[in-house]
Amino acid sequence: MGCKGRVLVYSIVGCPHCTRAKETLRQLGLPYCDVSLDMYDSRVRQQLQALSGSSSVPQIFFNERHVGGNSHLQALVADKDKLAEYISYVTDHAPPADAPQPPDPALALPSGDSLPECEPDEHSLLIQQLKQAGVIRPRRGLLSRARHCFTGSEFVQWMVENESVDEARAVEIGQELLSQHFTVQKSKTDEQTFSKSPTVYHLLEDNYSSALNAGPFQCRAGSAVEAGEGLRRLVLRLYSLFISRDGTTVDYKGMAASKEFAAYERQAGELQRVNLDSLSTNQKIAFFINVYNALVIHATVRQGAPRWAWERYKFFFRSSYIIGGMLFSLQVSSSSPSTCTTPGWSHTPPSARGRRGAGPGRDTSSSSGPATSSGECSSACRSVLPLRQRVQRQAGHTRHRPPGGAA
Q1: Which of 364, 384, 370 is nearest to 341 (CA)?
Q2: Which residues are CB-contacts of 131 (< 8 A; sequence separation ≥ 6)?
Q3: 347 in Cβ contact with 324 (< 8 Å)
Q4: Residue 216 CB: number of other CB atoms within 10 A?
Q5: Cβ atoms within 10 A of the Cβ of 122, count?
Q6: What is the mean pLDDT of the chain?
Q7: More confidently predicted of 69 and 116
């Protein structure tokens, strides 16, 4: 179909509503210009909000006529007479001066198609050396056996003899391993202090073996903001690759076998060592929403969607990530969602492992997630909790609506 006019679609990568809208336009035989907001400076989003009065996507324009989102497009398709008039208008009329224009290429961001690369971390390399030297080794206690652990005195002695540092510097490096969540000290308190002593320190990678991002992570960790945003972008990219053309189903088996999902799992490992204390309140809200959504998707790929009540219980109580040295599960805590003190999260500090009442399926004395007043993060509560409700409603169905976008 030849058009003198222009159909303009503003979208984001991985948005199912955007996918359905573009498939509808294809079925109508209407060529369109797709503006992916992920590829442009934030000023393009601001321009779109000024044009449409909305921050959701997709937003569809027939020349200067604003159709709206996907639901508005479907309503237009259902009205045959109005649809014919819109198609005739965009086919026969060039865009007027007040019609939205495609963004200025100068506002385009650098291509983000490349997958994140792994830059080795110097502390990870040190851990490997300690394993090879036998400093980190299995140890058996009276009632338990640890796979990888070492004492403070053994660590300091090896560092002095092999790394040409004095005892004070060796203790500093041991403290860095604790602070950056490579190792953990199991004690009756949450204090994590390294010393030249018989105190036993464990590798964090063994502490929460059930977490979906457990295991050695040898890449240099970025900031918590970068890690959360990186996961969000990878999830959207995965959905853009494995969502059906009509935006209603997702090929999770294909997703699990892809190199993109392997990159996603590597990126999730970075969460083990992020510093949550460095985040502001608003940054924590954005971080936990992104990571919560990512964990639901990760668990669905690896464990499958829960079908029955007991499976849903296990799914939300056992699906977990190690974040900043603590175990966070999907369980909704006993605190009121309206206050958003713990928006869909419960966490266990490392020193609580093995203590009665602690674990991913139990509440602990520590609060988790961004602790704010109800007025500050009510929108975050609405963003997190409906995702759980959608998974519960649609569990067991092949037609799964992925998060992202708005109708």
Answers
A1: 370
A2: 137, 148
A3: no
A4: 16
A5: 10
A6: 78
A7: 69
